Amino acid sequence: MAKEKNTEEESTDFGFDPGSQRELEVEDICCVTGEEVPASFCRFPDYRRGTMMVMARSVAIEQLRKGTTTVTFKEVLVKRHGKRALDEYRS
């Protein structure tokens, strides 16, 4: 079967390459409030700790409504590791 040519510029290959990527452990407390988070749907990587930061549901909903989720995660990174921590992120 012929593979359809992707006419869009962005890649659609989201495969995991164990040679260059590693799976990050998910944190179990909200990075904003410190409360335990039994299940999360809002995550952001903290490459220095090797974890995925999470937000409590109520915090995530509030941040999503404001459109400030990524900004909030980056503020947490700066508090944890200093401004240079953001150099590891593309945007």
Radius of gyration: 16 Å
Tell me the structural class.
alpha+beta
Number of helices: 2
Average pLDDT for all residues: 84
Strand order of the largest sheet: 1-3-2
Task: Give an account of the 3D structure.
It is a single chain. The protein has two helices and three strands; from the N terminus they run E-E-E-H-H. By secondary structure, the chain is α+β, with helices and mostly antiparallel strands. It has one domain. A three-stranded mixed β-sheet has the order 1-3-2, with helices on one face. It is globular. The mean pLDDT is 84.
Concise structural overview:
By secondary structure, the chain is of the alpha+beta class. It has helices at residues 57-66, 69-81, and strands at residues 25-30, 43-46, 51-54.
Write a concise keyword list for the protein shown above.
91 residues; alpha+beta; three-stranded mixed β-sheet; 2 helices; 25% helix
Topology:
Elements: E1 25-30, E2 43-46, E3 51-54, H1 57-66, H2 69-81
Parallel strand pairs: 1-3
Antiparallel strand pairs: 2-3
